[in-house]
Amino acid sequence: MKVYLKYFLPLFLFAASFKMPGQDALHSQFDYAKSLYDKEDYYDAVTEFKRLLFFDAGNKFGYTANEYIGMSYKMGGKFSDAIRYFVYSEINAANFDELFTAKINIVRANILRRTTDRALDLLDSMHVQKKFSSKTGDVYYWKGWAYIFADRWDKAAESFSKTDSSRTLEELCRKVERERYSVPFAEIISHFIPGAGQFYTGHYLSGLLSLGWNVLWGYLTISAFNAGRTFDGVMIANFLWLRFYNGNLQNSSKFAEEENIKISNRALNYLQYNYSGTKP
Amino acid sequence: MRKAFLIVLLIFSTSLPQDKKPGDSLNLFSPPNIKKFADYLFCQGDYLRAAGEYENYLKTNYNDTVEFKIAVSLCSMDKYSEAAGRFADIPPASALYQLSKLEFLKTYFLKGSLTEYRAKYSAAGIKSGFRYSNEAESLYNFSYLLNDGPLPDKNKFLASYMGSDRDSAIKFYNWKEDPPHKSALAAALMSAVIPGLGKFYTHEYWDGVFAFLSTGILGYLSYSDFKADHNFRGWLFAGLAAGFYGGNIYGSAASAQLFNAKVNFDFTNMLKNFLSLRNYFIPNINFCR
């Protein structure tokens, strides 16, 4: 044993103290690229992380560098590029945590890119995989965000209700859902009383005008029929009354949709500036 | 035991210098490594970063290929003025000089100002002993197809094209000489005489049928209502008929203009696609093999 120690210990100590120059350079490069990222110099950060990956023959930084590149692109609003690099990081993930983080990064970039269907598909596929069963809360959390960006606040509230720590978000989504106008309702009431949909969404002048035009053309149509001028009645109905009636229906749903967009945007604005939890 | 020790020592002694040997290859910012990285970015299509890295390389080493690649990168990012400047910087001694002249002209062609392009072409002295004079002339002739000026003589125009290029050039020339346009005035006059006819002329058949029927029926109803002393409805239908009649005349003229715009748009697109596929008649150099 002593003989082994005599020969191998110095050798081991020598080998252990020896710094591989390549590794040093790569680590320094990583630190440099990360410092650029930390300084929010995302363009240069991407360049330097790409340089790191190019020279990293052993693919030691395959996960981390790709993740940083993805995050830099995301911060620059280049979501498609971000997703590409998050996918590379997913490919290079070495353990469960890295894999999960990469997948969630892809989901978050998809949410911001407004390809929410894709984000929901990814989350659904994670939902059915056993290996992610310990992360169900996170999956529901991001599903909630995906539904918010898909403008489906009721589904968002439902998803947040399945997590333990998203009560604020759940309540906000329910509040938004209560405030929103029902587009089908606006259209249906306009079928019965032209202009009622506009009144429902607070556009009173438009509602009055719509009602007035429909009453006028309706009266003329009926009076033509009463005078035995059936063809006149059909033509007035076709060229005037139906056009204004259809316009009234389209207007009522358009107003409801516009008001809903305003409500959603107010909520998103609130989330952006006042919500301190994790956001896409 | 000694043997084992010696073997291990031998392995270390041979492996250590190898780690040091690439030396510079581990310096990520050494000029050769900057160039390698720039080449990688260039082939990935990340032209902005590639151009930046090539610029860094040129700070310490001059290389005409690198200069050329910077210009190609700039051109790929639609930075035509800068690209032209870089192509113009390639020295006459370079093997890429003649090609860079072609690329220089291409950047002016792509820039969109055809007058400027033609002035540069004339100033470049392409005809005297230039290896790619045929290619340059081919692109030059196409510039006549992209504006509304007079076309050169057909034989003179086609002289520089061979094979399938010639067939395409003939097709484009014929189209430009006699484009399948519709006259807006004719369309309006046709619709003034028979409502909807102008729409038929511009291939909007259903619009034509609708205009004819609506104007006819509304006109008839107006006449019939006046005759039956229903003056209010008479005026109502007369107003509607007049609206449809006037709208149809205007719509027919607008439809002819839209038709022509679509024809021009398709032609320009086809022409640009052709030029892009033919790389603007410039011989292809694959830097990314």
Summary?
The complex is a heterodimer of chains A (280) and B (289). Chain A has 280 residues and is an all-alpha fold. Chain A has helices at 2-17, 21-38, 42-55, 62-75, 79-91, 96-112, 116-128, 136-149, 153-161, 167-179, 183-192, 196-200, 204-226, 230-274.
Write up this protein.
The complex is a heterodimer of chains A (280) and B (289). With 280 residues, chain A is mainly alpha-helical. Among the domains of chain A are: 17-113, Alpha Horseshoe (Serine Threonine Protein Phosphatase 5, Tetratricopeptide repeat), CATH 1.25.40; 183-273. Chain A is 80% helix and 0% strand. Chain A has helices spanning 2-17, 21-38, 42-55, 62-75, 79-91, 96-112, 116-128, 136-149, 153-161, 167-179, 183-192, 196-200, 204-226, 230-274. The mean pLDDT of chain A is 90. With 289 residues, chain B is mainly alpha-helical. Chain B has a domain at 184-273. Helix content of chain B is 72%, strand content 0%. Chain B has 14 helices and no strands. Chain B has helices spanning 2-20, 31-44, 47-58, 64-76, 80-88, 97-111, 114-123, 133-142, 154-158, 163-177, 184-193, 197-201, 205-227, 231-277. In chain B, helix 2 packs antiparallel against helix 3 (47-58), helix 3 (47-58) runs antiparallel to helix 4 (64-76) and helix 4 runs antiparallel to helix 5. The longest helix of chain B is centred in the C-terminal third of the chain and has 47 residues, at 231-277. The A-B interface holds A 3-4, 7-8, 11, 14-15, 18, 20-22, 24-25, 29, 46-47, 50-52, 54-55, 220, 224, 227, 229, 231-232, 235-236, 239-240 and B 1-2, 5, 8-9, 12, 16, 19-20, 25-28, 33, 36-37, 40-41, 46, 49, 52-53, 214, 217-218, 221, 225, 228, 230, 233, 236-237, 240.
| Helix/strand class of chain B | mainly alpha
CATH architecture of one domain in chain A: Alpha Horseshoe
Radius of gyration of chain B: 33 Å
Overall pLDDT score of chain A: 90
Helix content of chain A: over 70%
SS element count, helices of chain B = 14
Mean pLDDT figure of chain B: 88
Query: What is the CATH topology descriptor of one domain in chain A?
Result: Serine Threonine Protein Phosphatase 5, Tetratricopeptide repeat
Strand content of chain B: under 5%
Q: Give the number of helices of chain A.
A: 14
User: CATH H level of one domain in chain A: which superfamily?
Assistant: Tetratricopeptide repeat domain
Q: Give me the strand/helix succession of chain A.
A: HHHHHHHHHHHHHH
Most strands sheet of chain B: none
Class derived from helix and strand content of chain A = mainly alpha
Number of strands of chain B: 0
Categorize the overall geometry of chain B.
Answer: elongated
Q: Oligomeric status of the shown chains?
A: heterodimer
Compressed to H and E, one letter per element, the order of chain B equals HHHHHHHHHHHHHH
Binned strand content of chain A: under 5%
Q: Largest interface: which pair?
A: A-B, 31 and 33 residues
Count of DSSP strands of chain A? 0
